[in-house]
Amino acid sequence: MAKTEVILTHNIVGLGGESDQVKVAAGYARNYLIPQGLAIPLTGVNKRRLEVLKQRRAEREAHELNTMTELAKSISKLICLIAVKTGEDGKMFGTVTSGMIADQLKTQFDISLDKKKIHLELPIRTLGDHDVELRLHADVRATLKVRVESTTPAPQPAEIAAAEAGRKEEVKTEKRGKRFEAGAEKEATEKKPRAAKGEKPAKGKGE
Hints:
207 residues, alpha+beta, three-stranded antiparallel β-sheet, elongated
């Protein structure tokens, strides 16, 4: 595939920033980069524009650094709430991912952040507070506090007491049943006819 060199006039993720000289497929340059104003052909005339492009790049990067530094200060004061479903034992159904955190930052604080900037070594699997690292810029990092809460209603004290009372009543009923069975068995044993002392049991006619 034929290659051609161009000078980028805008920052293109994965390719380069303003003033960078890069080699790309000729068709890509001809059909997309140059018509969209994202690059210019590498010629002697265009090389003289490099200083202007470098200045523009320096200004853009300085602005991005300042913006991310301010954002880091703001984010460090926030608590991002994540609501999850849990079972009766309090364990979560599923996990909290960087994508979920990014969505809640947008919903709760109107902060648009690429989920790739939210660094989770492992998805969050437990309720409570968690410190999550944000890599906002090559030179800027921040810590966001994420609070994971359950949406499953907790048992009310009355419900707990009723359940406990029910269990105690079952135990009592079971014990009463066992005592009744033991008493009945004892009574049946006592009522069983016994032969009088010195008296032989009656014999049958054939004996």
